[in-house]
Amino acid sequence: MKKILLVEDDPNLGLLLQDYLQLKGKFDVVLCKDGDEGLRAFTRDQFDLLILDVMMPKKDGFTLGKEIRKINPTVPIIFATAKAMIEDKTQAFNLGGDDYITKPFRIEELLLRINALLKRADVTEKKGDDKPSQFKLGSYDFDYTSQLITRGTALQKLSTKEAELLRLLCIKKNEVLTREEALLNIWHDDNYFNGRSMDVFLSKIRKYLKDDPSVEIINVHGRGYKLLIN
Questions:
Q1: Torsion of CA 40, 44, 45, 46, to 10 degrees
Q2: pTM, entire model
Q3: CA dihedral defined by 66, 67, 70, 73, rounded to 10 degrees?
Q4: How far apart are CA 218 and CA 34, in angstroms?
Q5: For residues 198 and 125, what is the distance between their CA atoms, to the nearest angstrom?
Q6: Cα separations in angstroms, 29 against 8, 90, 165
Q7: Residue 51 Rama label (left phi>0; alpha psi -120 to 50; beta)
Q8: pLDDT tens digits for range 84-130
Q9: Residues 6+ apart with CB under 8 A from 149
């Protein structure tokens, strides 16, 4: 049984979501009423997915998500909030969120998003992928399976989406990876919002590789991106 941490300060909504996800989704759902309680629960136990309300007392969801990402860079996070501005969504993904749902929402839609994220995480963890999983990038070594970039004794842990995007670039090294191909492979939808999300992850990957000038990810105008290794 998959275990979900739900942090929601509205007691009625929290209990409703907890009951529904346990009954319909067959999940073990731990409910916390604020960010401080949520962080304590996360440090005590192992969770497969997190649902974080953004506007909460004591510690807001964005702050909680940022602190959790320092502990675990890969656990899937869904932010739930009444804020619908693109700036808020961008902030959610910049903090390492995997999805964003705007209140009010249908619980059935939340369940679909949860199942999609868990399925994607399971696929990433499975062995036996017929595509290569280890790559040499100049002075860096990238292991897709462990989601690690290493350079000497320095280690950089990647999120699931960062690892998926970097592997696609590695597989098509010195060739154009189109935006559509990347979005359909990783997000399964090439809409504008997912494109903005991908740009955030790409910016992070560039920072991880910035210390070796022989490794470069360039924009190919109107088409996509290209990983160049000189």
A1: 80
A2: 0.57
A3: -60
A4: 42
A5: 21
A6: 12, 27, 30
A7: beta
A8: 777 878 888 888 888 989 998 999 999 999 999 998 877 655 544 55
A9: 137, 140, 141, 142, 155, 156, 158, 166, 208, 209
Identify the pLDDT of residue 127. Answer: 43
Which residue positions in the chain have pLDDT lower than 70? 123-131
> Hunting for tokens 């073990």 — which residue is that?
28
Residue position matching structure tokens 């399925």: 119
Q: Cα separation of 15 and 197, whole Å?
A: 30
Q: Which is it for the CA torsion 90, 167, 183, 76, positive or negative?
A: negative
Q: What CA–CA distance (Å, rounded) separates 217 from 73?
A: 22
The maximal CA–CA distance of the chain, rounded, in angstroms, is: 58
Q: Are 6 and 17 in contact (CB under 8 A)?
A: yes
Please return the burial class of 90, using the count of CB atoms within 10 Å of its CB with bins 0-12, 13-18 and 19+: middle
| Ordered DSSP codes for 5-32 | EEE-S-HHHHHHHHHHHHHTS--EEEEE
- Residue 99's beta-bridge partner residues? 78
How high is the pLDDT of residue 106? 92
d(Cα 79, Cα 48) in Å, to the nearest integer? 15
Looking at the chain, list the stretches that DSSP marks H as alpha helix, in order from N- to C-terminal side.
11-23, 35-44, 61-71, 86-94, 107-125, 160-171, 179-186, 192-208
Contact between 179 and 223 under an 8 Å Cβ cutoff? The reply is: yes
